[in-house]
Amino acid sequence: MEDLVEFIVDSAGRMGAEYAEARLQADLHESLFLKNGIVEAFAFEEIRGVGIRVLVGGSLGFASTNSLRKRDVEGALKQAFKIARSASKLIKRKITMGRGELGVDRVEVKPRVNFANVDIESRASLLKESDEQVIDAASKFDVKAPARVAELDTWVTEKIVRTSDGAKIYSVIPRAAAFTLITLVHPQRGSIQRYINLGEVGGWEVVERWNLPKTLFEEATTLSRALVEAVKPPRGEMDIVLGPELVGIICHESCGHPSEADRILGREAAQAGETFLKPDSIGLKVGSKYVNVVDDPTLKGSFGFYLYDEEGVRARRRTLIKEGVVNEFLHNRETASIFEVESNGASRSVAYNREPIVRMANTFFLPGDYSKEELFEDIKEGIYMKSFMEWNIDDRRFNQRYVGLEAYRIENGELKGFVRNPVLEVTTFGLWSAVDAAGKDLEFQAAYCGKGDPMQGIPVWTGGPHIRLRKVIVGGV
Amino acid sequence: MKFSEIPMKIVEIGRKSGATDVAAKMVESRRVMVRFSNNEVTVSKIFREATIDVFVMVEKHRAATTISTLSMKNIKKAIENLVKAAKAAPPADIYAPLPQGPFTYSPALLKAPKMPLDPDTLTGYVEGAVKGALERGAERAAGTLNALRAKITLATSGDVYISQETAGLELSIRAFVSEFATGHFLSVAGRLEDFNPEEAGRMAGEIAKAADNPKPGEPGKYMALLGPMVFADLVNQVGSLSSAFLIDAGQSFLVDKIGADVASKKFTLVDDPTLAGSIGVRAFDDEGVPTRRKAVIENGVLKTYLHNSMTAKKFGVETTGNAGIIIPHPWNLIVEPGDKSLDDLISEINDGIYVTNDWYLRYQNYRTGDFSTLPRDGMFRIKRGEIVSSIRELRISDNMLRILQNIVDLSRFRTWVKWWEVEVPTLAPYALISELNFTKPTI
Questions:
Q1: Which residue, of B128, B147, B322, B379, has the fewest CB within 10 Å?
Q2: A68: nearest CA in chain B?
């Protein structure tokens, strides 16, 4: 492995590249997919190849191949040069790679229980048992579960990144993820659906810790109750408490994405769009002083974990919003160069055949000093939104909507039963400015963040504590 | 052994290892992508790959893999492990043997026209598209050019051994007059003569120019004109969620609706992979079954779900030639045209909204079809049959079945849509929808 990336970077140097980067990556995946209690298929694959980036005359070329024969790799390198040179006529500002704390290191996360030691039967019986728990939980409320899908994925990513300016990082990271979509139906009350995503870095021990049968029993119980008991939510101006699941997605959508420096520069303008933040927005007040949002790839065990990015830059925590004020953007070396800052290690790629781009890792709201009881106690009338299903945001990351799934009415500081699909449809400034308290708790959820062209769905965590919003207008069915 | 014979060899190894059924699909592809923003190229990419998807069954026991290291030693080991994995996997509820050939395929669909992949030509297309947008008043443009050539070789234990070439050119361009005044358009072609990047640039520029100085829109129910990019996004949902697999998974608003009036009589949606020269052309599906043209919705009535042999057996019908070895899917969606011009449609609107593009469509409940999506790029108020102003900040928050029922009219003009947000190639018209619900942020 090492010889090949050395060969690529050395050859690129001899050919005249201002910068070259070789990434040899192998992802060994195993997936089990269950539909309505039946195993649809077991799948495994090794996605393996090399991705090469070269900077030639200020123009960036990327080439990938899954043939690791030297002549094919050499061919890919030549193609990267050729295509970069060809595009240079449409470049006014030459691309350069900025500063960053480059590493020479090995990062290996060792699983306690290796995935190879868990056979297909054990995986299938775990999913089947979990599936049965959904049916069992729903039946206690005279609710049917006519459609259930569940997927269990484990994979190990092994890669070596080498850059022409000295970074050299070898890493092996195991990950596990579980996904379910549950549909519950009641003859009079209609239907309700929920996605549940779990994901962490580690071996099979993380799957054991999730206790999927218990987790899904509890989820299906809550979902059944929401289906059977929920009433129309109150409408109008009121206080809202958001649970960590909502807080996490909000941090991701209306703080993390807008802070991506490549979006700020317009690089994603025709796909995921741009952002309301501008290059001079550092110092801009976007919310109340209780809002503190960070992105941190270095959280041990997190789904978005890494210690060095795809450009060999050491990762660190990024404080995106500090006390309501924009504090820092997410950078790779290309954007760092334009902004005249150091890269903060946000360059990520999902596979060997995908260009590294600016990405989040684990984006979350920092806990405050309120207990959960204190957050609720002085709310006269309000809504507690604990989970959601529908959400979206405009391509400037400003106009967003979250529709509650597990949601409750609050009266005089106490929860007063389920409400159905309350709607929070707000601007980013409006939302962050309404925050007046954050809890001491902190929870994370796994997700795959979509960005890039071709699309790269990359593992992330989103999270935060419970937070309270004052005087927000709630809509609903 | 020739490279193209590897899938046959895989079938042989799989059968010898004890599989009752084997399908091996090899895709050799060369793709070039030029991405641009602020009128400049930001990165150029070239992808060269050969991978093989293999699916085996030992009667009801199934397993699948993708092989990317194509030495015969590695392939043999992978297939033997795959058959072992299938034997160890718990059984599925049904066993549908892979369809038995040999089949006859349309020779016209097996060959693809020549498409340029050389960087200079492709960069020239980008230059032309940007020029078109700037000519029509845009300040800057961003987008992607995709050029693809691929060869798909399929072998199955059902006596199938066939190859097809595919090719396509896709240009997606978004023009900016200001941060809030943007326009997006596409040129998507399976033949070089149908590719017109400059025109796509001009269209994007025109929309952006017309969208200048937008004012906040007012929420409410409106007669809405949806441009082809928006309508294609909705139609993609209909096509994709008509997959029998997703019906079984409850992930569709079309569950239990075969034979029902799910849409206005004016709406007919066809999946036609046999349309020569289009970008979604496919001669055979992933089980080797010859593909065919089929109406999914005809004059408002849901006629069929999309099937492979497994879902077909489960539903007690014939395969529709839409395998997806596990999940059937549409190949090439076509909305039958209406008889109105764009001007006719606008003139029918007394008080309405014209949406040119959208993104980020998410469901509250797939089964009911409740969802929302964000209009982006030019959005306009129409009053008394004329576009009167540019608006922004609204969201379409409605129900998929209600929208399908509320189709009032469709245009004669149609264009191919396929881009970052719309995955399945879709030939879509402008659509006039009554009572479409728009919402907006409250703070």
A1: B128
A2: B69
